[in-house]
Amino acid sequence: MNGNGAERAAIRSLPSGVPGLDTVLGGGLPEYSFNLIAGGPGSGKTTLAHQIMFANASVERPALYFTVLGEPTLKMLRYQRQFSYFDPELAGSAIQFINLSAEVMERDLGEVLQRIISEIESAKPGIIVVDSFRTIAAQPRSSDKGAAFDLDQFVQRLALHLTTWEVTSFLLGEYVAEEQRSPVFTVADGILWLTQATDRNSVVRKVQVVKSRGRAPMPGLHTFRITDDGLQIFPRIPEQTRKRALQRRERLSTGVPGLDEMIGGGVITGDAVMLTGPAGSGKSTVATQFVVAGLANGETGVIAVFEEYPEEYLARANNRNPEVGKMISSGKLELIYLRPLDLSVDEALSAILEAVERLGAKRVVIDSLSGFEVALAPTFREDFRESLYRLVGTLTATGVTVFMTAEVSEGFREARFTSEKVSFITDEIIVQRYVELEGELRRVMAVIKMRGSDHSHEFRLYEVTAKGVVIGDPLTDYDGIITGVPTLRAKPAKAKRGK
Amino acid sequence: MSRDQSAEQQIARRLIEGHRSERAEGHASARAAAAACDQLYRELSRWVGPDGCHALFTRALAQARTEYPALGLIQLHARSEPYIDGVAEAIMAHGDPATAEALESMLISLVELLGRLIGDDMAMKLIERSLAVSESGGEASDGRREEA
Questions:
Q1: B19-61, pLDDT tens digit by residue?
Q2: Phi-psi region of A366 (alpha: psi -120 to 50; beta: other; left: phi over 0)
Q3: What angle do CA A320, A325, A328 make, to 5 degrees?
């Protein structure tokens, strides 16, 4: 008994078997709940239902999958069994497919309900799916006028029977938003709404928990992808759900001789660092050096690549430093390749976080933000700034140090140190740029932001060598470096003596 | 004959065997094969629907007909009992052994077709389920009684 004298009936949660969905649902699927999975054609309803069913069905508590009209069962089985979760061994024992087309087409709702109930009584399932419920509701019946009850009553009675038989149920249906007045929406304990939208050449799939009785699901729309493994949901990055890990603010070496000195002794742990520069300025080289430098301290790292194929990236990195290949082989470094053109920030974060947790990584490189933005579906580019803010916040809150590169275009009469869209999310900003010195194209580096720390204010020449980036001398004798075309400062004439 | 085909032939024969004892009178083989087809139609209809199942049988019959003239007299009636019609006429015209062999061939075609569509393993499981019904004397593994 609780303090109010009433005992709470514990609602057990069933694992959905869908990566990310339990998080979105606030802990899993409530047992014995009556759910609606709604969405347009091709939105993934059938796949989602199968995934849930295969994750939960057992011989003792089987799952019954009632097919009605719509996709022929043979075709559904043919396609569904291509997914990795589909275990043919379970078919016929733990999972039974039952076709209701005859009842739906030839009889009234009362007989459809009776057939469902008699199958449930016989098999005592833990889960049932009706695919598609919409066709039951929409099928015209000549006997409707004389039928025992209408659709409202059918839904009410079905829900009641399913709950009393302790069945967790899923009705699938093609609905549009305007149809939410259908009785099934009122009766359902949970409603999952799947959508897919086309924006230019990209297709973005999203899921929303419209309703979840007795639970506190994550609000909003969450992107998902359908792969050979079924649905994978990428919960929308919450704004700082994780408390920022309290840690000693130690300095991490960048691995670039001279750069640590410029930034006051090294990158501060848990910070977000941005290195910007034009194409070919050596951003990726510095980023790789940063990760490899961690190896000396036994730290592991993750590099998320957006601009190149991982093989090419690895080959170039290996040329400069064979340690990169060794780190990958020994499981101390993971290269994540994220270059689809329909990516969401949440999906990228999910992949990076998984790798960080897998390796216990301390250093993460995102190379580059420019490539990342291009890899996103157009719809996500619109709020790239906000999403990136949440992504960086979530990553640094885990205690990892994030090193990002960003390409900036520059002319010789203007200075664009950083991408103005994203510079605010970083704690430290290092810039690279080309300058013309004595008729030669040279590279300079400077530190323009170090939150809570002193740093150099010099422009330092640097070289991208076969072994990596090496910082050179400061350009103390030049003015106008910021323009890209510096001029040698005139030295003050020496005072003549003896005159 | 490949190993897979023999597996399909084996299961077709097991299906027919399950009905042979019930048909002790003359023309036992063809009648048993027809009863096996009727039962398989009922069981598979539960999974893939009567129309889906009828489509499978129709294709299997068309395929087997090219080699077995006895099947020219066989007709399939969806959502009817019995499902297989024209067996008596086929026996009259072609004899019991030829009709039985023809119906067995149709069953083999059906098993092969189902295997190509949903995979051999799952096809076998579905048909094994039908076998369980005939071997248990008409009670399905989920407790349902075989309909008349």
A1: 886 555 556 799 999 999 999 999 999 888 898 899 999 999 9
A2: beta
A3: 140
Residues A189 and A298 in one domain: no
> Distance from B45 to chain A by nearest Cα, in Å?
7
State the CB neighbour count (10 A cutoff) for residue A312: 11
Domain that holds residue A314: 251-487
Encoded tokens for A253: 């070496």
Is there a single domain that holds both residue A345 and residue A265? Answer: yes
Residue labelled with tokens 């991490």: A252
Pair (A482, A360) in one structural domain: yes
A124 touches chain B (CB under 8 A): no
Distances (CA, A) of A373 to A335, A378, A416: 18, 9, 18
Closest to A21 (Cα-Cα) out of A1, A43, A51, A57 = A51
**What's the number of CA atoms in the CB half-sphere (13 Å) around residue A296?**
9
- pLDDT band, very low/low/confident/very high, at A409 (cuts 50, 70, 90): confident
A97 contacts in chain B (CB < 8 Å): 47-48
Using H for helix, E for strand and C for coil, what is the string for A316-371?
A: HHHHHCCHHHHHHHCCCEEEEECCCCCECHHHHHHHHHHHHHHHCCCEEEEECHHH
- Which residues does chain B have within 8 Å of residue A74's beta carbon, measured at their own beta carbons? 48, 52, 55-56, 117-118
Q: Do A74 and B118 touch (CB under 8 A)?
A: yes
Residue span of the structural domain in which B93 resides: 3-135
- Asked if A158 and A124 count as a contact pair (C-beta separation under 8 A), the reply is no
Tens-digit pLDDT profile for residues B10-29: 999 999 988 886 555 556 79
Q: Which residues of B touch A91 (CB under 8 A)?
A: 122, 125-126
